Amino acid sequence: SLSAVAVNNRYVVTGSRDETIQIYDMKKKIEHGALLQHNGTITCLEFYGTAHLLSGAEDGLICIWNTKRWECLKSIKAHKGHVTSLSIHPSGKLALSVGTDKTLRTWNLVEGRSAFIKNLKQNAHIIKWSPDGERYVTVITSKVDIYKLDTASITGTITTEKRISSLRFITDSILAIAGDDEIIRFYSCDSQKCLCEFKAHENRIKDIYSFEREGQHVIVTASSDGYIKMWNLDLNKIKDVPSLLCEVNTKARLTCLAVWLDQASEMKENSDKAATLSQGNEDEKSSIVRKNKVCRTDKSVKAAKKKREITPEKQKSEAPLQKKKKKQNSSS
Hints:
By secondary structure, this protein is α+β, with helices and mostly antiparallel strands. The chain is built from 3 helices and 24 strands. The strands form 6 sheets. The protein has a 4-stranded antiparallel beta sheet. It has a 4-stranded antiparallel beta sheet with strand order 5-6-7-8, with no helix packed on it. The chain is globular, with a radius of gyration of 21 Å. 29% of the residues are buried. It is found in: Nucleus, Nucleolus.
């Protein structure tokens, strides 16, 4: 079964109990290959921008991947037990992780080393940065502790009746919390008060995701009942129950959820509406440049598929070839 899923503008990656990370190219709609570095169930995956992916697993490792060549840049022995969750700061300079060794660890991603270790009274299974990076939250069973970045101290605690399975920042100060019941609750990080709650599913909610598109806030929920539902959230009327936009019965026992947005086509639609002819030509040139870049990386990916892992010697031999191609492309 799948244990983790993450998306960026091009790829979807999934982690599983089979100890592999599978990559899917959403632009070409093809399987892209597999990453084999962990010895244990993959527990968490998170992209940073378009160039990096972090993975954590039950082997206690956190791996940092370059998503251009899909090579492991660094493998860190992060926890003595399992890595249960990780989260990257919006700046990309820090990451937080929690594990079954009752620690919360801060990582300096610039230097790839441990920056700080905080002992927890119990094992936390979720860690998450706020969008502005000013605070972060940990989840221990049914309790959410809210921390401030500058003091690294707890500023408030939210407690629910049942175990929390998923948590999402809707804004910098509003949390959506889902757990081992059918109810989604919105909480204020400042007052720790419940702003709204509503029954979303007929069974426990496994994951919750949110995104903003064309000024509309959308929440997506997945449940053990097999349903994926999309809800429209009006932030100006946060106390009102969100309206159901659509639902689909997958007839599967859902375990995790992520939303991939076709941002390239959305950007193209927007530019077509607003852009002048000259701007349209510029967009066309930039998209051609992007296509050229993609073509260059495809060869190394095919090599990675065949060997499942690229050897350092292969990387060195491919690097000068790529430089030549870059020169040819620039001269053309």
